[in-house]
Design goal:
By secondary structure, the chain is α/β, with parallel strands linked by helices. The chain has a single domain, classed as Uracil-DNA Glycosylase, subunit E (3-Layer(aba) Sandwich), CATH 3.40.470. 36% of the residues lie in helices and 13% in strands. The protein has seven helices and seven strands. Strands 4-1-5-7-6 form a five-stranded mixed beta sheet, sandwiched between helices. A two-stranded antiparallel ribbon has the order 2-3. A hairpin with a 5-residue loop joins strand 6 and strand 7.
Length: 215
């Protein structure tokens, strides 16, 4: 059986710029995760959430997507509000939180400088995203958080970027019965500037919950 590619090794060498930053982080914070961040959530989920990349003091520190930063505060609170998780979010991979019918990953698995991956890094991580998507037998909805994640999902599914334009709370029906849903990223910048409010984020998940409850 071929080895799954959806989890890069701890010392993945594919992106020199991200490798350099990883080594710097390990030297400065030896007790942090400081490695590619694996996906989180059950493999039989119908919903896959795709973010941008790990945050330096969030997932790069804790080893779990969207855990330990402001983006995670809003995301996990929203997941709890709409029944996609059990337990209490404690901003730690050891908080015991469990996702329900939902899985979370990132388009780029390693933390990038200034939280801005370049195209070559997104391309290098594409095989992991492809394998992640293909491994989810019950997948019905992919939620892309931001334009980069939206485009990464399209490319992973074999579409051109022109096939579907990103827009907040838009939905795009793709082949195989999968819907691509969009939301502005729940980043500190977007929430601080009001580009994304809690109500707007809840609107996205209300639509997703309704779609998943329909046969």
């Amino acid at each position: 059986m071929a080895k799954s590619t959806n989890t890069p090794g701890r010392d993945c060498p594919l992106c020199p710029r991200l490798v350099d930053l990883r080594h710097q982080a390990r030297a400065a914070h030896g007790d942090w995760h400081n490695a590619p961040v694996d996906s989180f959530g059950p493999k039989d989920s119908a919903l896959l959430i795709v973010g941008l990349a790990p945050g330096m003091r969030g997932a790069n520190c804790t080893g779990r997507p969207f855990t330990g930063d402001v983006a995670g505060d809003l995301l996990y609170a929203t997941l709890q509000s709409f029944g996609f998780c059990q337990g209490e979010y404690g901003a730690s991979a050891a908080d015991g939180l469990q996702l329900v019918n939902c899985r979370i990953t990132n388009a780029v698995r390693c933390v990038p400088p200034e939280n801005k991956p370049v195209a070559a890094e997104v391309n290098a991580c594409r095989p992991f995203l492809i394998d992640e998507i293909e491994s989810l037998a019950n997948l019905r909805i992919i939620l892309a958080l931001g334009t980069l994640a939206h485009n990464a999902v399209l490319r992973a599914l074999g579409y051109k970027q022109s096939a579907a334009k990103f827009a907040h709370n838009a939905r795009h029906d793709l082949s195989g019965g999968v819907t691509l849903a969009d939301s502005y990223h729940c980043s500190r910048y977007n929430t601080n500037t009001g580009r994304l409010t809690e109500a707007m984020f809840h609107d996205v998940f209300r639509e997703i919950r309704g779609a998943l409850e329909r046969p």
